[in-house]
Amino acid sequence: TLEATRPVPRPGVMAIDAYVPGKSGAPGAAKVYKLSSNETPLGASPKAIEAYRKGAEKLELYPEGTSAELREAIANLYGLDPDRILCGSGSDELLSLLTNAYIGPGDEGLFTEHGFLVYKIAILAAGGTPVVAKEKNLTTDVDAILAAVTPKTKIVYLANPNNPTGTYIPFDEVKRLHAGLPKHVLLILDAAYAEYVRRNDYESGLELVASNENVVMTRTFSKIYGLAALRIGWMVGPAHLIDAVNRIRGPFNVNAAAIAAGAAAIADQAFVQKAIEHNETWLPWLTAEIEKLGLTVTPSVGNFLLLHFPRDAGKTAAEADAFLVSKGLVLRRVGAYGLPDALRLTVGTEEANRHFVATLAEFMKT
Ligand code: PMP
């Protein structure tokens, strides 16, 4: 056998396209409105910020290793068993850990056509094979997922609402998906945008987790809690799954300041309520105003929406993006998701939202 002249990654590693975050700057613009990463325009709870500062006082000490304070706070809010909760450095880390625990070479991970890009990266990184199920009208199609299940399927990833589409399937459909899966297939309910969903059946996902051995729900502090910079996620699942993932996680995977800030954020539900109300006001407003300009918007239940520039309209998403950036409006191009003619917009402050609509109107007239 030939000896390589330098270390060579495992087969498949170099075939992975690295995750590319949205752009954050708008060179030359007087003021930047970052509407590209589904971050909240309201910032974090002042109580969380204060807890963060206190939590960062003793930098020489390792954090408590199981995120106990944070798990307790989450468990109290939702009436869960803290032993069934595991925290991570963003839900991204939890998605990777779950994938590493259940998928290896020869196994398949299944997600939808415009599913969150991290699923594919995590599956490939674990040596597994990504399998994609078609969507209908940019919405999860349960029948297509069930039809794509094979004897090799180990995990089904379902973001509900999905990013970048913002679309949602009702809980009955989630239940139908679960009922159609073999018991050894893990169903990951990625609920990154859970708090924004104004549907009274939403928390039912937690019941599905509580009453089954093959369902886990991942959540994040990056969105409505406004703590994206700290990278905090959590998941709740059956005891056997938490035990398995706990064995492969890194020690001290959530930092001390993050644990403190997360717990304080959970305790400030009044702040969350304000963020919900802000979104309830501005998501429909943005949808309606964009449609008035003759563009199509995919109905969203998250804190973001997709707007489409039809090929025959003479205006492209790329041109719109360039024009918007020149006015300080940073949106997300979603070509990597197979949506080259769309832009994803995060709901911003009132000022940002009004500036966006006025600027889009200006662009449509050019
Ligand atoms: N899932 C979905 C659907 C997302 O949109 C995101 C954030 N882009 C994540 C998971 C990961 O979030 P985080 O790692 O910040 O918790």
Give an overview of the whole structure.
The structure is a single chain. The protein has 366 residues and is of the alpha/beta class. The chain folds into two domains: 13-44 and 270-365, Aspartate Aminotransferase, domain 1, CATH 3.90.1150.10; 46-268, Type I PLP-dependent aspartate aminotransferase-like (Major domain) (Aspartate Aminotransferase, domain 2). 38% of the residues lie in helices and 17% in strands. The protein is built from twelve helices and 15 strands. It has helices spanning 46-55, 68-78, 90-102, 117-125, 142-148, 171-180, 204-210, 239-248, 256-267, 269-292, 317-326, 350-365, and strands spanning 33-34, 85-88, 108-112, 129-133, 135-136, 139-140, 153-159, 186-190, 215-220, 233-236, 296-298, 304-308, 329-330, 332-334, 339-346. The chain has a seven-stranded mixed β-sheet with strand order 2-10-9-8-7-3-4, with helices on both faces. Strands 11-12-15-14 form a four-stranded antiparallel β-sheet, with helices on one face. Strand 14 (332-334) and strand 15 (339-346) form a beta hairpin. It starts with 32 loop residues before the first strand and ends with a helix. The model has no long low-confidence stretch (mean pLDDT 96). 4'-deoxy-4'-aminopyridoxal-5'-phosphate binds at residues 90-92, 116, 159, 163, 190, 192, 220, 222, 228, 233.
